[in-house]
Structure formats: C-alpha cells, structure tokens
Amino acid sequence: MSYALLEKACPRCKPSSIRTYWANIKALSRVAGRDETPASAGWLNDKLLARIRAMPLNRLKRFATAGVKAAQMYKTTRPSWAKAMSDATERYAKLRESGKRTKREAQNWPQDGYKALAKLARELHTELEHLEKKKSWTSSDLYHYQRYLIVLFYSKHALRGDLADVRHKKPYGPNWITKNSSGKYKLHIGEHKTARSHGPIQLQLGPGIGAALDTFLVQLRRLTTHGFLLSTLRTGNRLQRQDMLRLIRNTTKNRLGKNIGVQMIRVLKVTGAAAEIDAARKLQDEMGHGASMQQKYISRGGWNH
Questions:
Q1: How many CA atoms within 13 Å lie on the side-chain side of 143?
Q2: What is the model's pTM?
Q3: DSSP 3-state helix, strand, coil percentages of the chain (rounded to 5)?
Q4: Which residue among 81, 164, 195, 197 is least enclosed by CB atoms within 10 Å?
C-alpha cells in the first residue's frame, strides 16, 4: 500500500495529518511483525487489536487510529478498531479534563517542568557556542546546531510537529519563516491540525531564537538546496516530521533521562501557565463571558486628551 492511497482515502485531511497517519500505519504494521505495510486489510485482526488494547493509553489511541485510517485506505471498515479508537479518545479526553497526569507523563515529567527545556537548550548552546565563530561548517556541525535550535524553539513555543514543515526560501508554501526589515523573524504556520477552525499560527520569534537563526541559516543555505528549515545528517535532505519528533525524544531521553515528545511539551507549557489560566477563567466566570469577549474588555491605553 502507498501514501498516495491514504491521501485518496482521506481527502479532507491536512497533509501534515496524512504524514502522521502514514507514519503510524507503518509503525502499526511493524507491531504486527510486517516489514512492509501489507497490500490488504487481513492483518488488521482481533489478535493485533488485543495487543493494542493492552498498551498504555497514548499508544492505544495512536495505534487504534492508525488501524482505522489503514482500513479506510483499504476501502473497508473495522468496527472493532473504530470502537477502540473512540474508547481511547474518550478516556484520554476525560483524563485531560481531570487534570491528572497519565502514567507515561508521570514517568517522564522533568523536575523543573517546562523550564527543563530552556535549561537543556542553554547546555546544548554551551557545547556548540564555538561553531558561531567557525566560518564553514560541516554537515555534522549543521545537524548538531540544528538540534540545539529545535530544543530552543520548543522551549519557547509549544507547536505540534509543524516546525519540520517550515520553508526558509521561496516558494514558501503554507509554512514559512522570514526576517523583516527590523531584523526580527516571523514564523507563519498556515497548514496545521486545527487550521480550519483556528486559522494560521503566526509567531514573532524572540531575540534568542533570532540570533540562533542568524547563525544557522547562513550555513544551511551553503550546505543544502531543499529549502526547508531542517535537514538530515547523512544525506542533507529535508528532515521529515517523524524524524524531527524522534530527534526531540532521543535528545530529552539522553540528556534529561525523560522521553519527552511534542505532545508532552504542550502539556508541560500549559501546566506551567496553569495559575494564569485559572485566574483568567475565574474572571470570565465572574464577568459572565468567554475568552474572546474578555479580550474586548481590555483597555491598553494609548488615547491622548
């Protein structure tokens, strides 16, 4: 089976979602003991589903969804897999709403919470600072500085895996990064999971990330031609989303002793802002309106008599 068939089976899915589904379908086929994704749906059986149901909730949710999407790709249905996906999604939503950590989160929660990523970024920068004075980098130099840049970025901005889809040169496509006339970088994410309901994500990047990009992009443009922000070590090709996500998990596991992916990074960031979020919600309840209306009640000054 092919990526193209999955695209055809899910015409309303975002390209980033298709890539995630395809990576998870391939991972599910490996769980089933297959080297390649099979050409028919026979492998999506009750025996495999029983194995999936015995897994931790995050993996159950991931693989049950992969099974449902694979069935769509085969132009068939698997009601038992759809029920497993629905049950896992409902359980996960209830767990998130309760504010309780999952078992996996508890095992991998860093002592300093979200701040642990900023500390790790500083440590990586200390190790790589000498490269900022080096005129011509090797591919290895580029890759290791890139790892620092990724950790630095996610220590400030808890995106999903969309950073891997960003282009730094034309044609930009939906996700791109540019530097304006004042020397500040703007990141535009027009294609992401909730783009239809939320619209594009636009970020003005701070001076720390800006300084790292100033150093990094010079060498990236010298060593690569693919136009994307991130590159592989061996071939210098574009770094795919799943490989960036693996890089983040491997780096946090090796350096912090914790297996932290982007989903957990998002939980860490929101948890770190819990007091401010709770205060805002309490004010909304008191005022009897929602977050969007609350924004309209903010007076920031600026009127001159």
A1: 16
A2: 0.80
A3: 60, 5, 35
A4: 197
For the chain, domain boundaries: 3-98, 108-272
Q: At 186, give phi and psi (nearest 5°).
A: -115, 130
Alpha-helix runs per DSSP H in 155-240: 195-198, 207-223
Q: Are 60 and 95 in contact (CB under 8 A)?
A: no
Residue 20, judged by CB atoms within 10 A of its CB (0-12, 13-18, 19+), counts as buried
The identity of residue 253, as a single letter, is K
108-272 folds as: hpI Integrase; Chain A (1.10.443)
Lookup: tokens for 282:
């309490």
CB atoms within 10 A of CB 217: 17
Residue 168 three-state SS: coil
Buried b or exposed e, range 248-282, using 16+ CB within 10 angstroms? bbebbeeebebebbbbbbebbbebeeeeeeeeeee
